[in-house]
């Protein structure tokens, strides 16, 4: 309980810009971990996912709706897992759950311009 109250005090002392920077850094770190988790996997599908993750990392660096694009990326990976049988390790599943929870309150209305499995939506 001490930890949570001190975290609340820290968050209340941070400006909104500082809080946004920390949240973006957290997303960036988790996405880098996800990117590296696909390294060494055989198949062209995994390299395409790495390209999509790299595009979302660029969006975070540009501060171009990082939560919305991360949420859309998680949906893309989960759709490919369900529809194409893409194998995800338990660690990758944990990362996706964590990213989904971090980005679940985002407005995606303007991002639904293409099919859920279209990789070009991240460019």
Approximate shape: globular
Provide the helix percentage: 55-70%
Number-wise, the strands total 0
Unreliable residue runs: none
One letter per element, helices H and strands E, the order comes to HHHHH
Major sheet description: none
Rg, rounded, reads 16 Å
Overall mean pLDDT: 85
Summarize the structure.
The model has no long low-confidence stretch (mean pLDDT 85).
What does the secondary structure layout of this molecule look like, with pairings?
Layout: H1 2-13, H2 16-37, H3 44-61, H4 66-84, H5 90-102
Helix pairs in contact: 2-3, 2-5, 3-4, 4-5
Q: What characteristics describe this protein?
A:
0% strand, mainly alpha, 123 residues, 5 helices
Would you write up a description of this structure?
By secondary structure, the protein is an all-alpha fold. It has five helices and no strands. The chain has helices at residues 2-13, 16-37, 44-61, 66-84, 90-102. α2 runs antiparallel to α3 (44-61), α2 packs antiparallel against α5 (90-102) and α3 (44-61) runs antiparallel to α4. The chain starts with a helix and ends in a 21-residue tail after the last helix. The model has no long low-confidence stretch (mean pLDDT 85).
């Amino acid at each position: 309980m001490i930890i949570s109250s001190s975290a609340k005090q820290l968050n209340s002392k941070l400006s909104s810009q500082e809080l946004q920077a920390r949240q973006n850094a957290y997303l960036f770190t988790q996405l880098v971990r996800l990117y590296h988790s696909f390294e060494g996997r055989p198949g062209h599908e995994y390299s395409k996912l790495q390209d999509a993750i790299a595009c979302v990392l660029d969006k975070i660096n540009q501060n171009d709706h990082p939560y919305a694009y991360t949420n859309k990326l998680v949906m893309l990976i989960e759709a490919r897992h369900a529809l194409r049988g893409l194998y995800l390790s338990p660690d990758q599943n944990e990362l996706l759950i964590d990213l989904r929870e971090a980005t679940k309150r985002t407005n995606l209305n303007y991002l639904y311009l293409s099919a859920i499995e279209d990789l070009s939506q991240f460019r």
